[in-house]
Structure formats: C-alpha cells, structure tokens
Amino acid sequence: MKMVFRWFGEGNDTVTLTQIKQIPGVEGIVWALHDVPAGEEWPMDKIWQVKEAADKAGLHMKVVESVNIHEDIKLGLPSRDLYIDNYKKTIVKLAEVGVKVICYNFMPVFDWVRTDLHKELEDGSTALFYEKEKVAHLNLDEQVQRINANPNFTMPGWEPERLARLTELFDAYKDVTEEQLFENAKYFLEEIIPFAAKHDIRMAIHPDDPPWPIFGLPRIITGQDNIRRFLNLVDSPYNGLTMCSGSLGANPANDIVAIVNEFADRIPFAHIRNVRVYENGDFIETSHRTTDGTVDIAGIVNALHDNDYEGYCRPDHGRHIWDEQCRPGYGLYDRALGIMYLWGLWDANRRKLQGERIGD
Ligand code: DNO
C-alpha cells in the first residue's frame, strides 16, 4: 500500500507540502489543475509548476484526481469527440511527468452532494452530513429559479461552475437513462483505455457519492454489480476502480470487503474513510476508526492486505477538529490521524501474517 495525500495546490489549500511530508509514510500528493474547466486540455506549464513544487518537497505526483469528464461525453453528444481528444492530449502530458493513475467520475452534473458541511458530532467536532429526505424532497425547479435569480447562491458541495449551467443540463439529461449512461461510458472507455494503456496510466473510476440516483439524474457506479459491469465494458487492467469506502459505504447494502476481494487487481487507488449511516438513510462522516462509523475499515484494510495490495491509498474526508479552519472535509489533522490508523491496521497485518518486523 502506497500512501498519498490530496493537495489542492498552492493558494488553494490550507495544508502545506511541508506538513504533508511530515505525516508518516506519505510518499506523494494527489493533485489536479482545479482551475482548468472540464473538457479542456491541461497546460503543460501549469503541470510543471506542480511537479517542481512536489519535487522540492520530496513528494511524487503519480496520482491525479481528477481529470474531469465533460458533460457532453456523459450525454453522448457528437461534440464528445473533441473533448475525448483533449482528454488524450492531457494524458500524454501527464505521462510525461510520471503520472500513473487518473481518478475520475462519471456522475451527471453533480459530483459529491451533502446537505451540511459543518454538522456537529457528539465530541464537538464537525463533519459533512447528508440528509436523505431533504435531498429527495428538494424542489429542483425552485432551486434553479433561486440560483438564476441570485448569482451568488450556493449549496454545500455544489461547485459554482456546475450551477451555472443547471437548467440547460437538466434538460439535456431528460432522456438519458442508466442504460444510455453505460453506453456513453463504453464509448469513452473504448477510446481512452487503450490510449491510457499505451502511456502506462491506469484509469480509476470513482464511485458515485452518494451511490444512488439523485434529482432524477441517473448514477451507475453504485455497487458491486454495476462496478463489475463497468470494468467489463473494456476488460483491461487499465480500466480500474478508485475503491472509495465512504462513497460506497453510504449504502449499507454494499459489502465493501467483498468489493475489494472481487476487484483487487483492478484497484489502482483506494480512498479510505468511514461514515455513520442512520436508520433513516442520513449519513455523517466520522473519524476513520472502525467503531466510530458503519463501514468496516479494519475489514477493508485486512482485505487489501490479504490481496497483497500495492496500489495507492489516501485517507479521505475527515472531521474538522482542534479548531482547524480548512476546506470542508480536507483538513490536516483528522486525515493525518486517519493515516496513522490505516498504517496501524496495515502493520499489524504484516506482522501477524508474515512475521515481518515492522520497519523491514
Ligand atoms: C470528494 C472526492 C470526489 C472525487 C471525484 C473523483 O471529496 O472524493 O470529489 O474527487 O468524484 O472524480
């Protein structure tokens, strides 16, 4: 298991590269050019800037999260070929600086969705929270009207650039079923996977978060059967999965240990975090510790170890603790604690199963 840490870039993150370097066992950053709109080719000079900063800090930059997919690709519009072409051009450039994994998602319109970014937990810390009923009953037309009337309107977790095209996008997705979305994913994968393979970059699809359709939009990376179907669309080691325990774990029906065991050799990247799912379907993000949430984090790390996992792994959203002011979910402290928990589980496995002395 190779430990990496998400970094949003100079001026865009409260966490510094020096701090990241001091977390035990972290060897690289997970990065992206967050100001390049989806569908555009990434400029080489900006890629080099990140490379220089990472080199200077003694960290590698082999994992990118994300090169986002333009909506026209997900919609299957004729213009998708142009955006697929740009995606390939970006792949060539990323290969040039040694990138090995690209994490991306195939969620229509929205990425992750929450209803509260600072919900208080029992211990006074705060964390990201999702209220199922609230999202189910959100009147989208009303929301779109409010958004259009107020350019500064925002919803937790919704990126402003995605909001700008909401009405148009909802309209465009009216006829896109789950089947159609799979078809459009296939078209994308058939173009991209052989190309990525040629450049030795493993593509790693991120599960939908939450893993069910929202706002009437289809979502397909929701559980074990759909992941199998997606990976079989193009059956190649370069068509991989970002195993995100928190996204999949929001649906307690997902057996994540089984997912790790079935797809182990197709998981180049793992996001490990815990969530606590309530009976009404709401969920809140907790510390990484197994007993604090509903996800079997210890079981997942054991399964990764049993499968001789050699891919990259990062802690994921943490709570906001010790008065830290940070990007929601992306503070230093709780994610660093998460890493130490993951290492603890991993090292205990090594010692138990292989009789290795820790440190060898
Ligand atoms: C949330 C992240 C996601 C993830 C994308 C991958 O914090 O896990 O935004 O980066 O879905 O494309």
From TrEMBL:
<dbReference type="GO" id="GO:0008927">
    <property type="term" value="F:mannonate dehydratase activity"/>
</dbReference>
<dbReference type="InterPro" id="IPR036237">
    <property type="entry name" value="Xyl_isomerase-like_sf"/>
</dbReference>
<comment type="pathway">
    <text>Carbohydrate metabolism; pentose and glucuronate interconversion.</text>
</comment>
<dbReference type="Pfam" id="PF03786">
    <property type="entry name" value="UxuA"/>
</dbReference>
<keyword id="KW-0464">Manganese</keyword>
<protein>
    <recommendedName>
        <fullName>Mannonate dehydratase</fullName>
        <ecNumber>4.2.1.8</ecNumber>
    </recommendedName>
</protein>
<dbReference type="InterPro" id="IPR004628">
    <property type="entry name" value="Man_deHydtase"/>
</dbReference>
<keyword id="KW-0456">Lyase</keyword>
<comment type="function">
    <text>Catalyzes the dehydration of D-mannonate.</text>
</comment>
<keyword id="KW-0408">Iron</keyword>
<comment type="similarity">
    <text>Belongs to the mannonate dehydratase family.</text>
</comment>
